Amino acid sequence: MSSALIIGDGPGGLSAALYLAKNDIETTIFGQDETPMHYAMLYNYLGIPEMTGSEFQKIGRQQVKDLGAELIEALVEKTEKTDDGFTVTTDGGDTYSGKYLIIATGSSRELAESLGLKRGEEGAIEATREAETAVENLFVVGRTTRPHQVQAIISAGDGASAALLILSKEKKEGKRFCDWDSVDD
Ligand SMILES: Cc1cc2nc3c(=O)[nH]c(=O)nc-3n(C[C@H](O)[C@H](O)[C@H](O)COP(=O)(O)OP(=O)(O)OC[C@H]3O[C@@H](n4cnc5c(N)ncnc54)[C@H](O)[C@@H]3O)c2cc1C
Prior knowledge:
It is a single chain. With 185 residues, the chain is of the alpha/beta class. The protein is 28% helix and 22% strand. It is built from 4 helices and 10 strands. Strands 5-2-1-9-10 form a 5-stranded parallel sheet, with helices on one face. A 3-stranded antiparallel sheet has the order 6-7-8, with no helix packed on it. Helix 1 packs parallel to helix 4. The chain is globular and about 45 Å long. The site of flavin-adenine dinucleotide (FAD) has 33 residues, from helix 1, strand 3 and helix 4.
């Protein structure tokens, strides 16, 4: 089974983890639940008329764990590109490796820069609209690449986009993968 590492556990990282774990990619997500979502009162997330950001995070964190993602409550201090993917090292000194890496670190952009990614307008880490970067199998989502559009639903959409690109590579040999379920399933 291919593996994906996700740094950052806000809406962007959690959404990517949801799509990947749901579709049987071995998924490890790192974060200490220190997202600014804990200051938010959501009235603008489609499908959720009203919810605190803390409740949103609690549900999201449980949802990805239930789907099989491993949530590591640690800070990532270092990440490196290897011949067959990426490694990340936590503040506890543990090292993990994976074929794919998604960076979803919000306003912290140093780890993305350490992998050679460039900053563009307003300090945004450069990535395509679909979250691809100049480095193969490395994706950047949410606030890290969109400092000018800091909304939870946009970060979650970016996370889904990065995951769909990974799933397209893994399951459809590059043809587009859609994560659809129907009422008849
Ligand atoms: C007061 C306030 C109110 C808001 N209200 C709303 C609102 O009503 N509606 C709305 O849509 N948005 C609102 N927002 C914005 C919302 O919080 C952001 O859009 C959202 O959090 C961005 O999600 P993200 O996943 O891109 O980044 P973040 O949520 O910032 O997530 C990044 C995560 O990565 C973690 N991280 C960073 N570096 C590392 C590392 N090295 N290792 C491990 N983890 C790391 C961080 O701790 C954090 O948990 C509000 C924000 C604030 C401050």
